[in-house]
Specification:
- 79% of the residues lie in helices and 0% in strands.
- It is mostly helical.
């Protein structure tokens, strides 16, 4: 009996919650909306009944009846003396409630998820309106549209196959590199935008490390010279940039070749864990002194630099594949060391691609990732010493060297 009644109980709960939210939102409104919590509850139950009958004609009639009731309620409110300027949010929410009630029978979990999203969107109406009017700049709207075009228009149009006789160049795979860089860059911008620069250099380092920890390290080393109190926060940012970059390697491997994730996780996870422990300790010690330090938000999508970085990654990918064809595993390791000096994501992408095609053993691919990681850490230490100076190096060197040791030991013992 309960199994038969469960879709109706779920539909009634969804309708009641959405209806209560609508009544609460309109409590101070001069107009009286006829669509209240009881109406929403009954509309959801009506949708569940339409799904239970399993006849298209009956479901269409019930949906038309629900739409007529909703329209009648809207026109009654709109034509009243206080109805000028009344919106249609409640009416659309009512139709969505009927649909969710219909969905509750076949896809209960999906219905609950969509109901929660609906309630959240309705409850956040004032903040959404304020954010749309004054919270989003023209450059951010342009950046969002640009990213959507690159990810959902251009990428699906490119052929996902190798176009050369040596199986080195895949247009879709190469463009995907650019999309990932742009996406992570945009995501880092949004994180800083929402959380504010108060989080300081640590947040800047983490978000920058998702794209290029080497570039983030260079920027933080420059920033550390702007004031005596910035050495600690800059060092925290450098470590977090490396942590974010290392964690992103697992994501890259999971996207390209999921079977590589299990053996790669200990080698990458050990440095990440050590870096997080060091960061937590640093925050406890220097946390009260962390400040914004004049961080400013730049253009959310700097396409030129993203395209240059994507080109570097693409070149490393093609070079690694060619080296493997000509020199075997040794060529891959040499290329991994050279590529890792600039960006470890390129190395991970390249060797995971080779492993997925069966031309490189998984353990050899993991070793190449480790070689690229070690080369990248050495380059970071050189940049820190050269640009940031001895004070920054003394703070950054212990955690970075510890992360190198953790990665090597994890590879040897796993």
């Amino acid at each position: 009996m309960f199994e038969a009644a469960r879709p109706y109980l779920l539909a009634l709960a969804i309708g009641l919650l959405i209806g209560i939210e609508r009544e609460r939102a309109q409590a101070d409104s001069p107009t009286h909306d006829p669509l209240g919590s009881r109406t929403f509850t009954l509309l959801a139950m009506l949708g569940a009944v339409a799904a239970h009958i399993e006849q298209v004609a009956v479901a269409a009639v019930l949906a038309a009846f629900a739409a007529a009731v909703i329209l009648a309620g809207y026109f009654r409110t709109r034509l009243g003396p206080e109805g000028s300027g009344v919106g249609v949010t409640t009416e659309v929410a009512a139709m969505a409630t009927f649909t969710l009630g219909y969905l509750a029978r076949a896809q209960a979990a999906l219905a609950v998820m969509l109901a929660v999203i609906t309630i959240v969107v309705l409850a956040l109406k004032p903040r959404i309106h304020e954010f749309a009017k004054v919270g989003v700049s023209e450059k951010e709207v342009s950046a969002s549209l640009t990213f959507l075009v690159t990810a959902f228009v251009i990428l699906p149009l490119l052929p996902d196959l190798y176009v050369d006789p040596w199986s080195l160049i895949n247009p879709a795979r190469l463009w995907l590199i650019f999309v990932l860089i742009v996406g992570t860059s945009f995501g880092g911008y949004i994180a800083v935008r929402l959380l504010g620069p108060k989080k300081g250099l640590a947040l800047a380092g983490f978000s920058g490390g998702l794209v290029s920890s080497t570039a983030a390290t260079l920027a933080l080393a420059h920033k550390s010279r702007e004031g005596e109190g910035l050495t600690g926060p800059a060092a925290t940012g450098v470590v977090l940039a490396t942590v974010a970059s290392s964690a992103a390697q697992i994501v890259v491997a999971a996207v390209v070749y999921p079977e590589m994730v299990a053996p790669l996780t200990p080698v990458v996870g050990a440095p990440v864990a050590l870096g997080l422990l060091g960061t937590a300790a640093a925050i406890v010690v220097i946390g009260p002194r962390v400040r914004a330090a004049g961080i400013t938000l730049e253009n959310p999508l700097v396409l030129r630099s993203s395209l240059m970085l994507a080109t570097v990654l693409g070149v490393v990918l093609v070079t690694t594949s060619a080296s493997q064809h000509v020199f075997g595993t040794r060529g891959v390791l040499v290329t991994a060391a050279l590529g890792g000096a600039t960006n470890v994501h390129a190395v991970t992408l390249a060797v995971a691609t080779l492993a997925s095609s069966g031309t490189l053993e998984v353990r050899e691919a993991v070793l190449a990732v480790l070689v690229g990681f070690v080369a990248n850490m050495i380059v970071k230490l050189i940049l820190v010493a050269w640009v940031g100076g001895r004070p920054l190096l003394l703070v950054v060197a212990p955690p970075l060297l510890g992360m190198i040791a953790a990665g090597v030991l994890a590879y040897l013992f796993t």
